[in-house]
Amino acid sequence: MSLEPDDLLGVGEVSRRSGVPVSALRFYEELGLIAATRTPGNQRRYRRHMLRRISLIVVAKRLGIPLSDVQEVFTSLPIDHPPSQRDWRRVAQLWRAQIEQRRTQLEHLQRELTGCIGCGCLSMKACRLLNPEDALADEGPGPRRI
Amino acid sequence: MSLEPDDLLGVGEVSRRSGVPVSALRFYEELGLIAATRTPGNQRRYRRHMLRRISLIVVAKRLGIPLSDVQEVFTSLPIDHPPSQRDWRRVAQLWRAQIEQRRTQLEHLQRELTGCIGCGCLSMKACRLLNPEDALADEGPGPRRI
DNA sequence: CTAAAACCTCAAGTAAGCTTGAGGTCAAGT
DNA sequence: ACTTGACCTCAAGCTTACTTGAGGTTTTAG
Q1: Domain span at residue A136?
Q2: Which positions of strand C lie within 7 Å of protein CB atoms?
Q3: Does some domain include residue A75?
């Protein structure tokens, strides 16, 4: 395999190493999440550190973070060199906080669901499950008392 | 408003009471999640208890449960009468378990992310974040050691 | 009776996150 | 040189959960 001389990887190689399908890599490139130089023959060549960026995307996906969010944090990461420890720390803490939030939301829901198991009301009126937080206050669309 | 004589509600009324847009109600009907009789003029008329079913859908949405799952549990709920307390209890417990599962998954991820904040590896090799569970064992697609 | 509000169907569009296919080019081994 | 596999670019398709619009009918209030 005398393919990648320098530290340039072909798209197939990157796919194999990252576990991300080639089609997805091209898609990420369209979104501006990753970048590659081209050979004279127009084929993509990735620098090694791009694997780190791809890793971040993979992690984000596991965390349920939408690509648009990834896009946002990536605006602050230089595309031409590997993310520093500081960068990674910053991103990790941001995402940790986001998970934290969703986790506690789920906890709330679960407590409500548990408390609701016996009641069987579901009557669109005072059921907390059907009236998230505010619902009885505003006059927008949504279930309310009659 | 002498509209709904019996206990039959028009689609607009149901929408107002449930907070679910008319278009969504029609969509749920297509999926077989809800049902309505028709007037001689072909307009939908819902029986009151259909609001309960719609409530279940609304709750499921808040819980992040996909409609396909709702569809499944609905196969065991009679469409022609309101779900009993037992029915509701069964469904609630099922969904509670599902939330539980997703919640603990998030917890794991968060622990890993926290533990990973300092390491900054993301090197596709031994990083736990990039290698969920099994990854080093199988030979399928995905990151692995080299 | 008539006008307006509510309703109907069916087709197409939206967003996210990709995949698949067609039709063609590039690079590597022999 | 030639074959094969890897790669290229569009364009279109897929899933979920709906929304929007066009064009037409029903119901209800006055």
Answers
A1: 84-146
A2: 6-9, 16-20, 25-29
A3: no
The bridge status of strand B37-38 relative to strand A44-47 is unpaired
Is A73 inside any structural domain? no
Q: How many domains are contained in chain B?
A: 2
Q: Please tell me whether residues A16 and A53 are part of one structural domain.
A: yes
A21 touches strand C (CB under 7 A): yes
Which residues have a Cβ under 8 Å from the Cβ of B20 and sit 6 or more positions away?
Answer: B14, B28, B54, B57, B58
Percentage of chain A lying above the pLDDT 90 cut: 35
Q: How far is the CA of A56 from the C1' of D19 (A)?
A: 34
Cβ atoms within 10 Å of A79's Cβ, excluding its own: 14
| Two tokens, residue A89 | 């720390």
In a domain, A39, yes or no: yes
Please state the length of chain A: 146
Same domain, B44 and B95: no
Residue A57 · residue A25 · CB < 8 Å: no
Answer yes or no: are the C-beta atoms of B53 and B34 closer than 8 Å.
Answer: yes
**What does the pLDDT look like over B38-77, one tens digit per residue?**
999 999 999 998 998 999 899 889 888 899 999 999 988 8
DSSP type of residue A137: T
3-state SS, residue B103: helix
- 3-state SS assignment for residue A47: strand
Please give the interface size between A and B, counted as residue pairs whose CB atoms are below 8 Å apart. 118
A76 lies in some domain: no
Chain centroid, CA A74 distance in Å:
12
Q: Are residues A56 and A114 in the same domain?
A: no
Residues B36 and B92 in one domain: no
